[in-house]
């Protein structure tokens, strides 16, 4: 049976930075995210007994090597859980501007987890689906749900209590999320490498862990209370603290470019002029600017006026995993 699932990507408002277990994708801290409506992956999976290996088609192109190996390792977990050994045909289409530096791993593995578990006969939803998606990409566990989502780091060694849960549905609080593209090149330090290096060597990492719970509490309160200023203040500070841990690493490293700073300064200027806008930055140079829908056009126009900005994508809170054709 072929099953088709769709999942949307997300951005972290309160970041996770560093893993306590690399193999099980267990984070050092909880994180909070927004699922986005405009960026998503649609994936079909069919297990067949006449295949000698998994076949992975991405955006109409048959993939090989490392890309297929990564998908096969993930499907091995599904096969092992289901007690089945058939290989699969995976056909995936990304509606995510990956060339612009916006990661599709969260939506990709969330969609793959949903389609493959159902195709092989596993009745997974909610926390179970979130747990299995985590093994493909940590942030994928958050894309199982729509709206505002928290990934619980868990405390068990086996990771069974590390999964995401929804804080607030996407329809309950509309915000505008502007993904501001300033750089399209492959970053020199991959996120996974950056996390590991920071945890092992940064003088500032202990401060990150000591303050993360306070950030999480403020973000939860802001989301439940629809307090935009409180949420914006904590998400911006949290992003800056995460990047500060990299500057404290040995040797230090950073993802920002001059264009990144241009956007950050412009957001601060918008606030000085009376428009509430806040920025957050993942492990890369591109910036996400959060504002209220009433200010969306003004913020977008200001971002587009920055000479170093290449493109601006406007999103709002989006849905969780869905199945196509049902």
UniProtKB/TrEMBL annotation:
<comment type="similarity">
    <text>Belongs to the diphosphomevalonate decarboxylase family.</text>
</comment>
<keyword id="KW-0067">ATP-binding</keyword>
<keyword id="KW-0456">Lyase</keyword>
<dbReference type="InterPro" id="IPR005935">
    <property type="entry name" value="Mev_decarb"/>
</dbReference>
<dbReference type="InterPro" id="IPR041431">
    <property type="entry name" value="Mvd1_C"/>
</dbReference>
<dbReference type="InterPro" id="IPR020568">
    <property type="entry name" value="Ribosomal_Su5_D2-typ_SF"/>
</dbReference>
<feature type="domain" description="Diphosphomevalonate decarboxylase-like N-terminal">
    <location>
        <begin position="7"/>
        <end position="164"/>
    </location>
</feature>
<keyword id="KW-0443">Lipid metabolism</keyword>
<dbReference type="GO" id="GO:0004163">
    <property type="term" value="F:diphosphomevalonate decarboxylase activity"/>
</dbReference>
<keyword id="KW-0444">Lipid biosynthesis</keyword>
<protein>
    <recommendedName>
        <fullName>diphosphomevalonate decarboxylase</fullName>
        <ecNumber>4.1.1.33</ecNumber>
    </recommendedName>
</protein>
<dbReference type="InterPro" id="IPR053859">
    <property type="entry name" value="MVD-like_N"/>
</dbReference>
<dbReference type="InterPro" id="IPR036554">
    <property type="entry name" value="GHMP_kinase_C_sf"/>
</dbReference>
<keyword id="KW-0547">Nucleotide-binding</keyword>
<dbReference type="InterPro" id="IPR029765">
    <property type="entry name" value="Mev_diP_decarb"/>
</dbReference>
<dbReference type="Pfam" id="PF18376">
    <property type="entry name" value="MDD_C"/>
</dbReference>
<dbReference type="InterPro" id="IPR014721">
    <property type="entry name" value="Ribsml_uS5_D2-typ_fold_subgr"/>
</dbReference>
<feature type="domain" description="Mvd1 C-terminal">
    <location>
        <begin position="179"/>
        <end position="306"/>
    </location>
</feature>
<dbReference type="Pfam" id="PF22700">
    <property type="entry name" value="MVD-like_N"/>
</dbReference>
């Amino acid at each position: 049976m072929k099953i088709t699932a769709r999942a949307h990507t997300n951005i972290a408002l309160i970041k996770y930075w560093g893993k306590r277990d690399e193999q099980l994708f267990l984070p050092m801290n909880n994180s909070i995210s927004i699922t986005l409506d405009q960026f998503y992956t649609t994936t079909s999976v069919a297990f067949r007994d006449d295949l000698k290996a998994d076949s992975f088609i991405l955006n109409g192109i048959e993939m090989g090597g490392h890309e297929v190996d990564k998908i096969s390792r993930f499907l091995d977990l599904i096969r092992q859980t289901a007690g089945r050994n058939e290989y699969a045909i995976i056909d995936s289409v990304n509606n995510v501007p990956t060339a612009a530096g916006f990661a599709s791993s969260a939506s990709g593995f969330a969609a793959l987890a949903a389609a493959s578990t159902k195709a092989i006969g596993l009745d997974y939803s909610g926390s179970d689906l979130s747990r299995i998606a985590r093994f493909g990409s940590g942030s994928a566990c958050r894309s199982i749900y729509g709206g505002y989502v928290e990934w619980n780091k868990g405390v068990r060694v086996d990771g069974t209590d590390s999964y995401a849960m929804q804080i607030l549905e996407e329809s309950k609080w509309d915000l505008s999320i502007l993904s501001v593209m300033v750089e399209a090149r492959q970053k020199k330090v991959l996120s996974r490498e950056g996390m590991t290096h920071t945890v092992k060597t940064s003088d500032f990492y202990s401060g990150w862990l000591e303050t993360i719970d306070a950030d999480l509490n403020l973000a939860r309160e802001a989301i439940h209370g629809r307090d935009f200023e409180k949420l914006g203040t904590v998400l911006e500070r949290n992003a800056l603290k995460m990047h500060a841990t990299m500057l404290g690493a040995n040797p230090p490293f950073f993802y920002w470019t001059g264009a990144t700073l241009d956007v950050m300064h412009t957001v601060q200027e918008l606030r000085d002029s009376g428009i509430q806008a806040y920025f957050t930055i993942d492990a890369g140079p591109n910036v996400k600017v959060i504002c209220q829908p009433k200010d969306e056009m003004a913020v977008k126009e200001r971002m587009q006026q920055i000479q170093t900005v290449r493109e601006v994508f406007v999103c709002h809170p989006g849905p969780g995993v869905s199945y196509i054709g049902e």
